[in-house]
Design goal:
The protein is α/β, with parallel strands linked by helices and 711 residues long. The chain is 41% helix and 11% strand. The protein folds into three domains: 162 residues, no CATH class; 278 residues, Alkaline Phosphatase, subunit A; 98 residues, Arylsulfatase, C-terminal domain (2-Layer Sandwich). The radius of gyration is 29 Å and the shape is globular.
Length: 711
């Protein structure tokens, strides 16, 4: 107390180092508390809504080391973030002349929580599907938070977080300059004025102008006339051609792909063999039916994964093309299967990776920061709920830049996942087609379940499902648009064969057909894919072809267009003659398009196909985790059973034949796809001769396998 005036002296501000130390303690407490809260609330291991207590026990029993290592990584990340947030708030507190350790500690705690909240809200607005599992079904108030934030602009929250971070060094610098200006004495910081800001703002402005000019300057020369063409395949998992607006779909889902339809040619029907990603891509690229190539199903073992066989990529590499494949979540097969690409940039997928992924997704406060630490959390790429094509755009630009360094042409396959379940389109496409006020269980997408749902989906639920899928189509279309702009900017668009493709279609709860792909062969929805080709002057513009293209015809067609001989092992035929500009389109004979189902993951999901199949257990009993690699594969003792149990069939002309092995013998179905394009009316009883002929043809085409004798 001042003896003369009787006033208390002003409190002494804490030294700089003590302010930072106590603020960092507050930040650590904030982020470690968030980690503990998320860990306690999300103990059950699940995958896309499928949870199983036996699986959780198995994980802890057999993969305890992986669990503990992931816990250590998560705690380390929270510790680093807590220190960073505490440092930010500490700088701000020192700049404001903080007094008292308790105030600094509480300021570090509160400021860190505020920063975590703003960053999290920005990511929720950008990728709401990523938080659906932990927020939407948790409670009424978390559900409302997710619904409310998902409709906001991510940039708003991120700007507030950035301002909070930037304010700290500004305040600290302000005080530091004030102290230096008075010989180290504590004075009130001087206000910033226009004169002081003019010079740095001018430097920033000039730098921004120069950066803009550099970015706008296209230094890539246009390829000389007559140089060998490039190949660019843009694909999305589960992309249905009937959901493209250029094919008559009522929603405007694909303006950029529609442009390619006008500028190029496309096949009205392109049929894949097995509607699952791994075997389908192998058939598309090898021009061999599954059974001729070794990738018979999704969960093949190490011997099949180690095999080598000719593909589109190997043929192009041998002819001098540089080849690469880029993918996100659904494209892990490119890192696991021998498809022949020189450069592969695709996520890994094995059981330890799955454990790390599922543990990470429960950490709501950490998720927004993982994009800043991609090397520390590579499992982020494997999130089914995070299928934003934007990272693919960035990696594609890098690939194109790498290709520019050589004179060889390139063949680039980019495979997106945004149209794969759970149909998690990012902002600004998310929610674009949803009904106002949608709050049902499928508001943020849906995934096939291993066990039957408590109640069948309502019409409004199916409408939300389709709306989310269509938003994914729109997001992929925007990616296609960005890629075409990049190709034009680099002067590559006119000398590149651009192809739009997919590995299979998708069932979207059409009557009796369920959700997903691979379980059955009813209807065309999961069996048809887009096959669009654009190459000015080499491929006819605006041509729609009625010839039924098969999966094994894709690679030979592309090779002939590029002037490369097809390997002798290819079984498909080239359709390039139908794509030549001008003149009449030559007619081609109809050839059979073979069909098969993949492994059934569940034996109790309540879907219709369960009534017409040879039984075997669900994946918790039929799959194994390989020691060492952690890869998930089918147990060898189940290979023969899975092979015999497959549903099989073919398209030929106007007919579609299906054979469904059952304990009572094969069930045979026949559909007239010309008179009944939705394949709703089974007519085998009225056409026994057609059935007999088609079964005999199916047996001949599948000569590598043995079929049950016709009844």
């Amino acid at each position: 107390m001042n003896k003369l005036s009787g006033e208390m002296p002003p409190p002494t501000p804490l030294p700089f180092t003590r302010v930072l130390a106590w603020a960092c303690r507050g930040g650590l407490c904030a982020f470690l508390g968030l980690y503990s809260l998320c860990a306690v609330l999300n103990m059950q291991l699940g995958y896309q809504g499928n949870e199983n207590s036996e699986l959780t026990s198995l994980v802890w029993r057999e993969f305890r080391r992986d669990v503990l290592l992931q816990v250590a990584r998560l705690i380390t990340a929270h510790t680093v973030l807590g220190m960073f947030a505490g440092l930010v708030t500490g700088l701000a507190a020192w700049g404001l002349g903080a007094t008292g350790r308790a105030r600094v500690f509480l300021g570090g705690l509160g400021g860190s929580l505020l920063l975590a909240l703003l960053v999290c809200l920005g990511d929720i607005a950008q990728h709401p599907h990523l938080y659906a599992a932990t927020l939407y079904a948790r409670s009424a108030w978390t559900k409302q938070v997710l619904l409310s934030i998902s409709q906001t602009e991510p940039a708003t929250w991120r700007t507030l977080a950035a301002l909070l971070v930037l304010a700290a060094p500004v305040l600290a610098s302000w005080r530091w300059r004030a102290r230096r200006g008075t010989g180290g004495e504590r004075t009130r910081p001087r206000a910033l004025n226009g004169t002081g800001l003019a010079r740095p703002l001018g430097v920033v402005l000039v730098g921004a102008i120069l950066a803009g000019l550099l970015l706008a300057w296209n230094t890539t020369p246009t390829p000389p006339p007559g140089s060998r063409p490039n190949l660019l395949i843009l694909a999305s998992d589960g992309l249905r051609p009937d959901h493209l607006s250029g094919n008559g779909y009522p929603r405007r889902t694909s303006p950029h792909i529609d442009r390619l339809l006008r500028e190029g040619s496309h096949f009205e029907q392109t049929i894949i063999q097995i509607p699952r990603t791994g075997p389908s891509w192998t058939t598309l690229l090898s021009s061999q039916w599954a059974g001729q190539h070794p990738i018979r199903h999704t969960m093949v073992g190490p011997e099949a994964r180690a095999s080598r066989f000719p593909t589109l990529a190997t043929a192009l590499r041998e002819a001098g093309w540089r080849t690469a494949v880029l993918s996100d979540y659904a494209g892990d097969i490119f890192s696991r299967l021998p498809l022949g690409f020189e450069h592969v940039e695709a996520p890994a997928f094995n059981f330890p990776e799955l454990i790390r992924q599922r543990m990470l997704i429960t950490q709501v406060a950490l998720l927004p920061w993982t994009a800043l630490l991609p090397s520390f959390f590579p499992e982020r790429q494997q999130f089914p709920e995070l299928t934003d094509p934007s990272p693919l755009s960035a990696s594609s630009r890098r690939a194109l830049e790498d290709f520019r360094e050589g004179e060889a042409p390139f063949a680039l396959l980019v495979f997106a996942s945004v149209t794969h379940f759970p149909y998690a389109a990012p902002h600004p496409y998310e929610g674009r087609f949803l009904a106002p006020g949608e709050r049902g269980p499928w508001r943020f997408g849906a995934t096939p379940q291993m066990e039957p749902p408590p109640a069948p989906p309502r019409p409004e639920d199916v409408a939300a499902l389709v709306a989310n899928y269509d938003a994914g189509v729109l997001a992929f279309d925007a990616f296609v648009g960005r890629m075409m702009e990049e190709m034009e900017r680099r002067g590559l668009a006119d000398n590149t064969l651009v192809v739009i493709l997919s590995d299979h279609g998708e069932h979207l709860e059409e009557r009796d057909r369920g959700l997903g792909h691979g379980e059955h062969l009813w209807g065309p929805e999961a069996l048809r894919v887009p096959f669009i080709l654009r190459w000015p002057g080499k491929v006819a513009a605006g041509r729609e072809l009625t010839t039924r293209a098969r999966a094994i015809d894709v690679a030979p067609t592309l090779l002939e267009l590029l002037g490369v001989p097809a390997p002798a092992s290819f079984q498909g035929r080239s359709l390039a003659s139908q794509l030549v500009p001008g003149g009449a389109v030559p007619e081609l004979d109809e050839l059979p398009a073979l069909l098969e189902t993949d492994i059934w993951f569940s034996d109790r999901d309540g879907q219709r196909y369960q009534r017409f199949r040879l039984p075997y257990p669900w994946l918790y009993e039929t799959l194994t985790v390989e020691k060492g690699s952690g890869d998930i594969s089918l147990k060898p003792e189940w290979e023969e059973t899975v092979e015999k149990a497959r549903h099989r069939g073919l398209y030929l002309g106007r007919w579609k034949l299906l054979e469904l092995p059952t304990p009572e013998g094969p069930r045979v179905e026949l559909y007239d796809v010309h008179a009944d394009p939705e394949e709703r009316h089974e007519i085998s009883a009225a056409n026994p001769e057609v059935v007999a002929d088609l079964r005999a043809r199916l047996h001949r085409e599948r000569s590598w396998a043995v079929l049950p004798a016709p009844r």
